[in-house]
Amino acid sequence: MEKRVTFSRWTIGILFAVPQLLLIFTFFYWPAGQAVYWSLTLQQPWGGGNIWVGLDNFRSILSSADYWNSITASLVFAGISTGLAMFIALVLAALTDRQLTGSRFYRVVLIWPYGIAAPALALAFRFILAPEAGFLAVVNRMWPGIWDPGLDGADAMASIIAAFSWKYVGYNFIFFLAAFQAIPRSLIEAAAMDGSGVIRRFWDIQFPLITPTIFFLLVINITESFQDSFGIVDIMTSGGPANATNLMVYKIYSDGFKGLDYSGAAAQSIILMLLIIVLTIFQFRFIERRVHYR
Amino acid sequence: MTIIKRGFAALAAGALSTALAMPAFAEPVKFDFWFGLSGDLARVVDTLCKNFNASQSDYEVVCTSQGNYDATLQNTIAAFRAGKQPAIVQVYDVGTATMMLSGAYKPADKLMEENGYKIDYADYFPGIARYYATSKGEMLSFPFNSSTALMYWNKDAFAKIGKTEAPKTWEDVGADLKAMKDAGYDCPMAINISANESWQLMEQFSALHNQPIATKNNGYDGLDARLEVNKTKFVQYVTDLKKWYDAGLIKIKSKDLGQDMVQAFASGTCQVIMTSVGDHGTVGKTQKEGMNWGVAELPVYAGTERKNSLVGGASLWVLSGKSDAEYKGAAAFLNFIHDPKTALFWSTNTGYIPVTKSGFDYMKSNGFYDKAPYKGRETAIASLTASEPTEITRGIRLGNFTQIRAEFGTQMQAIFANKVSVQEGLDTLVKNGDAILDRFQQTYPGKMLP
């Protein structure tokens, strides 16, 4: 017997879907379509008119060394900060799950960083990492000039990675902890009685059981590192020094809003969108194979 | 009691009917003014607006700060596209070319003429007026907050090396910085090399030495102007700055690193800086107790015939698409700002300089420049009026100049981090800057700068 609820007429089904479709259209497809249109034209910022230029915007962006530099910087940033944020969160969650002393306290505290707005967080990190007056000034007192995010691109990149990872450790921690706690205690206790140690239990039981969470967080972290890095870059480095931290999302902002080059920025955001789509497809296609859903 | 009550009621009714009958009592016409200043300066603008509203009853200006210059322009563009633009907007100096091609403004001189105000445009300091005027000399916008760059020097430090005057040439600066370093000063001079410092390092330097930044008279004569700072005296200047930086005579100070150069100077950490006259008040208010300091015109290389420096700041644009009543109000507001008394109020409460000769004279006759906290600010006027503006020292009229400044910051950082040589860095600046100019020209095909 058919157990699903079905509608006698397909129009009713469509009617139910209309509000949702309308929302998606207004807030996603319409702006995205507009961005595609802008990327194929040269827009006058004040709206005086535009000229159809076909793929010229894409051509000029893709032939610019600055843009490739920006893509490289974004990939480096995404790779390192995702790795850091996930690894630290995983370790912290595993420890908290073991009910060590004070784990109830950590469970609450470690979630806070995610609640802090990116600009506020960036401001705090700017003070902490300031080479002359911040906490890291000690390093410069011992080895003068070793830490200089103002001129050294690698130092600046390290600064924004530190700030971003710190925020996402909190986010990842919530999910990891929930995943660990969803593992039945009896499994772990059984393994313990069979004589396996903490590390062994982690690799053989816990880790395989939380792969769906790891995969989910991987996708989210990489996507967010392309998008949510904006506030941090804006406050901490403004894309400098010498474009070393000019991530794709920041370049879109500075070209579009500061430079009033709306068409170039639209083309860049299309490229960024495609890049994220490709990365996500790649992850689903190749990494998800190793994920065991229950 | 009831009689009194009734009396009051009658009185009130009478007053109401007269108010309704008399147009003079009508609601004042409201119009918007968006500006890009924040903090202390925003409060001064608010006071200015209150004073205007109190001075007459026909119009009411609603002044809204948009945070900074960039945001003001962005928000205005967004508002204009949606048909909700303010009547008056403050646009920074480098946005002038963008505004001129926008087709979104009402020429300021026409507005004043239509509404019966007589403005003596020759009264503006030529260095200021030419920056905002068309190539034919018409004023499309009104100069508002204006400043220029000066050299701030620590008299105590210079006294240690036996100097009582600020250096006038870059050769002297080099020698003095060296002497101060030898005398034990860790930071003889502070600079910053982000996008914003393009103003004092590249733009002011080029004007003082009568060197072009771009062809076509810095862009005044056409949208096909292209940068040429990689083959002017500017190359030597950057080379010297880099040399002094490598020798430890110059330190880079910025907010990101913990202390910006104004703080570094005011605290006595660094002995020389180049910044806007607008910081004169800040240095005075935050300086180390008992520190002796002064301001001087920016140095030039020996043997250079000094030209006028460039004005920095912003002007007021009246946007198109508003009602006649609002335009009347806007004209009255601009006329109010033009008044020498407003100039005195404005300059006293900010570090900005008066933009008209009559304003300057009025302030001088009030003894403004003799008093301690303001003494020295007249140097800015001297610097701005050092010569009649030449074709090159009129100003800079390049599209998307904000992006070119950003490119300046990027390349200077690359040069100072030893990633590229001075010449390579400036060549890249010109190449990337030209791409920006090229794009701007393509966006406005067949259009001419007014």
From TrEMBL, chain A:
The molecule here is called sn-glycerol-3-phosphate transport system permease protein UgpA
Q: How does it assemble?
A: The complex is composed of two ATP-binding proteins (UgpC), two transmembrane proteins (UgpA and UgpE) and a solute-binding protein (UgpB).
Which family does the similarity line name? Belongs to the binding-protein-dependent transport system permease family.
Q: How does it sit in the membrane?
A: Multi-pass membrane protein
Q: Which domain of life is it from?
A: Bacteria
ABC transmembrane type-1 domain location is 71-283
Bilayer-crossing residues are 12-32, 71-96, 108-129, 156-180, 201-220, 265-287
Annotated keywords = Cell inner membrane, Cell membrane, Membrane, Transmembrane, Transmembrane helix, Transport
Task: Please give one Pfam family short name.
Answer: BPD_transp_1
According to its UniProt entry, the function of this protein is described as: Part of the ABC transporter complex UgpBAEC involved in sn-glycerol-3-phosphate (G3P) import. Probably responsible for the translocation of the substrate across the membrane.
The species this protein belongs to is Mesorhizobium qingshengii
Where does it reside?
Cell inner membrane; Cell membrane
From TrEMBL, chain B:
Question: Do you know which Pfam families this protein is assigned to?
Answer: SBP_bac_8
Subunit and interaction comment: The complex is composed of two ATP-binding proteins (UgpC), two transmembrane proteins (UgpA and UgpE) and a solute-binding protein (UgpB).
Highest taxon in the source lineage:
Bacteria
- Is Cell membrane set as a keyword in this record? no
Q: Which UniProt keywords apply?
A: Periplasm, Signal, Transport
Q: What does this protein do?
A: Part of the ABC transporter complex UgpBAEC involved in sn-glycerol-3-phosphate (G3P) import. Binds G3P.
The residues the entry assigns to the signal sequence are: 1-26
InterPro entries in the record: Bact_solute-bd_prot1, SBP
Q: Which organism is it from?
A: Mesorhizobium qingshengii
Name of protein: sn-glycerol-3-phosphate-binding periplasmic protein UgpB
List localization entries. Periplasm
Family of this protein:
Belongs to the bacterial solute-binding protein 1 family.
